[in-house]
Design goal:
Order of helices and strands: HHHHHEEEEHEHEEEEEHHHHHHH
Number of strands: 10
Distance between the termini: 35 Å
Helix content: 25-40%
Number of helices: 14
Shape: globular
Length: 425
């Protein structure tokens, strides 16, 4: 099936979540965020699509309309996992610099790039911070991440701080393995997620301490039983060679205990060194899923970086960082609509081909990278796979072809150009 036809079919499945008028606004936002280049403001969204209502109905859809953002998140999660059932969750935080002090949730936060590079940047930035979760799964085109949900964080409010946002997002997700960066090593976070029947995969900090499981004495002694055994010395472990993605690694693993997590965990250590005269460098992971193979754990954390590229693409191509809103409700809804547009665009190009689609003519089959580059006349671009930028460029190009024709009258072309967000020359 053609990506445009598949996209429209998946978009129509959301009709049960909205009333008729709200569903028209929902379609307007999703199509507008894809068709408008770079910014994706409400004015561009209104001009890029065929909107039956007025411009002011779009801000009201985000602030006053009655529809549930949690139901939209759950439906999107089921839609993605129905297509790609095998995968893991990835959680991370991102920021969006903005202007204006009257917007909800704006505060000064530390610029992490200040100490590493770009010295001309300020030490602190003013804007919003979001907590987001995505689904990392293998697809026919490789391992891809689908951003599922995002919520704005307000550090000074107990209801919307970092821990509350993480808890709210993970409650709506089905049980699975969640991958974290080492900045989330907090016992309160892992205790809450384990109570929700999730598993955890996280990188350890440099000062992390692990202990062996103590042996039970033959004769029971007085007092409380011993919880932690001797301390684990990572350099003294026995390392074995393991092949992960056609690369030979020196890896050691052991079931241990740590004060960062209330249950037993599996510690995975990878050691490397550039020269034999240099010291070993140790890369440590730990997980609460004791049944997951070691090579799968290393592979999952290697692919964790895709959530950073998903944030970048959502801001550049789907308007995630160009909102003009003030309320917390409107911010959360706009961020969720941006993620819905991102996932539907990816699914339109990466969905597996069913048996019914295999019987269709060749022209209706899913297109590959060469066809996309040929359609966009980008013979100079050497890409390895269809990126999100190429997907949105393809949709915009097809929208232009559909809306402009030399056989139309001038007023008709003016109307069609206005619908796709362009102005006549």
């Amino acid at each position: 099936m053609n990506p445009l036809l598949r996209f429209e079919h998946m978009l129509s499945n959301y009709r049960s979540l909205f009333k008729s008028n709200n569903f028209n606004h929902f379609q307007t936002f999703i199509r507008g965020l894809i068709r408008t280049p770079h910014r994706g403001t409400m004015t561009q969204v209104h001009l890029s699509t065929e909107q039956s209502g007025t411009y002011w109905s779009l801000p009201k859809f985000l602030s006053r309309s009655k529809w549930s953002i949690d139901k939209l998140t759950s439906f999107l999660t089921r839609q993605v996992q129905r297509t790609f059932s095998e995968g893991v969750y990835v959680y991370d935080e991102t920021d969006s610099p903005t202007h204006g002090k009257k917007q909800c949730g704006t505060h000064f936060y530390r610029n992490t790039r200040y100490n590493t590079r770009n010295k001309n940047q300020p030490k602190f930035k003013h804007g919003h911070q979001f907590g987001a979760i995505g689904w990392l799964c293998p697809t026919p085109q490789g391992v891809r991440l689908f951003p599922l949900a995002a919520r704005v964080m307000c550090p000074n409010k107990k209801r919307d701080n970092s821990f509350a946002v993480l808890k709210r997002l993970c409650v709506t997700m089905p049980r699975g393995l969640i991958v974290f960066d080492r900045g989330f090593n907090r016992r309160a976070v892992f205790t809450e997620l384990l109570s929700q029947k999730h598993h955890i995969l996280c990188r350890t900090r440099s000062n992390a301490v692990f202990f062996y499981i103590p042996k039970q004495p033959k004769k029971q002694k007085r007092g409380r039983p011993r919880r932690y055994g001797n301390r684990v010395h990572i350099p003294y472990r026995t390392y074995k060679d393991m092949v992960v993605d056609s690369e030979t690694l020196s890896v050691a693993d052991k079931i241990v205990r740590t004060k960062m997590c209330p249950v037993d965990v599996r510690l995975v250590v990878k050691r490397t060194r550039k020269k034999k005269s240099k010291k070993y460098h140790y890369f440590c992971l730990w997980t609460s899923d004791l049944d997951c193979p070691v090579d799968e754990l290393i592979r999952h954390y290697r692919n964790r970086w895709q959530i950073e590229t998903a944030f970048r693409d959502a801001k550049q191509n789907f308007g995630f960082g160009t909102y003009q809103l003030r309320s917390r409700k409107g911010l959360n809804r706009f961020a969720q609509l941006s993620f819905v547009a991102t996932c539907l665009t990816q699914l339109a190009f990466t969905e597996t081909t069913t048996q019914a689609e295999q019987d269709t003519p060749v022209n209706d089959m899913p297109i590959d990278l060469e066809n996309v580059l040929q359609t966009l006349n980008m013979h100079w671009y050497k890409a390895k796979y269809i990126t999100r930028g190429l997907m949105t460029a393809y949709f915009r190009h097809r929208s232009q072809q559909k809306s402009f024709s030399a056989s139309f009258k001038r007023n008709q072309n003016f109307k069609n150009n206005r619908e796709i967000g362009e102005h006549p020359t």
